[in-house]
Give the backbone structure.
Amino acid sequence: MNCFTTLAALLALVLGVGCGKKASPDGESSLGFARDIKGVLSKFCFECHGVEHQEAKLDLRTVESILAGGESGAAIVPGKPEESILFEMIHDGHMPPEGKLPGAADIERIRQWIVSGAQP
């Protein structure tokens, strides 16, 4: 490896190039639903908002169904976690109503995903 190649590789490592996450215009990390969010929702939400049950007619298994929403409308507003009922309910500790609640890191990941545009 020559000096230029080594320098380019080091720069890519430092800048996170190729890590699979893009920076959004506001500097937030761009997260993907399938890669970063679905596992969290599966653990905490799918029992009531999944295959067998869809409380309030809300299915949280896909980005499309989250955007379609349920009885209260769209569960998220891409780019606006403060206007997203899904984030509000999780952040305020109202959901899930029983059992273990998502931790701060999971809640922040959901917020960042919404901020970055709620990508699939």
